[in-house]
Amino acid sequence: MGKLFVISAPSGTGKTSLIKSLLEDPMSSNTKLGISCTTREKRPKEKDGISYFFISEEEFKERVNNKNFLEYAEVFGNLYGTPKDWVLSILAKDENVILELDIQGALQVKETFPNTQTIFIIPPSYEDLTKRLEQRAQDSTEEIQRRLNEARKEITIGKDFDQIIVNNNFDDALGDLKKFIFLDEGPSKKRSEANKNSLNLLLD
Ligand code: 5GP
Questions:
Q1: In which element (H, E) is residue 53 found?
Q2: Closest ligand 1 atom, CA of 34?
Q3: How far apart are CA 137 and CA 113, in angstroms?
């Protein structure tokens, strides 16, 4: 059996860019990223079947009834679900799977498969997170506030994940991710301190 990893992070923490770079590493040849189903609107640069499988709410509910999802959750008003058969078939081929899920999804997967390695990526501070959400210019001021409030709640849950990684520096965070996923190693002493200090700052 391959290994299952779930990566979660508050919105705007840089999780998607980190995962993209992780999968460009030659060591990732045995690791696949899950493609979820969602009822949210496709964004301009997204492609159906690559970013997500974009489906209607009706179809989503049908798949829930047919128990097609390993987990599913409502995130910011839209439904998201992980196709179960796909994940199981990849793991059965001795390949590893990475799922990029919200915190509720991560907890559901951990409960179903306790061997899942959960990774929580955190911003160095709320000020930094606010800046990043503003810079990506994707959301209104109200939406940014909502995402920040959500981040506070997520951090109180994510603090108990198997591995915490602070994205205060992209390369350092990527290094931690690679060590954990490809080499089954924890962060260096210096990074471990940085991760702990940032988490404590966010929890204060
Ligand atoms: P976005 O709409 O910005 O792509 O994603 C919003 C949130 O939904 C992110 O935290 C993302 O990780 C999460 N997400 C994406 N796919 C799934 C899924 O299949 N299940 C769950 N629970 N969350 C998901």
A1: strand 53-54
A2: 19
A3: 37
Q: Which two tokens stand for residue 161?
A: 């994940």
Distances in Å between the Cα of 135 and the Cα atoms of 13, 83, 140 are 12, 32, 11
Distance 188 CA to ligand 1 centre (A): 29
CA–CA separation, 12 vs 151, rounded Å?
A: 9
Atom of ligand 1 nearest to the CA of 9: 10
Local confidence band at 2 (pLDDT 50, 70, 90 cut-offs): very high
CATH of 4-34+96-203, one of 2.40.50.140, 3.40.50.300, 1.10.40.30, 3.20.20.10: 3.40.50.300
Phi, psi of 6 (to 5 degrees): -120, 130
Distance, CA 102 to ligand 1 centroid (Å)? 5
pLDDT digits (tens, 9 = 90+) for 125-154: 999 999 999 998 778 899 899 999 999 999
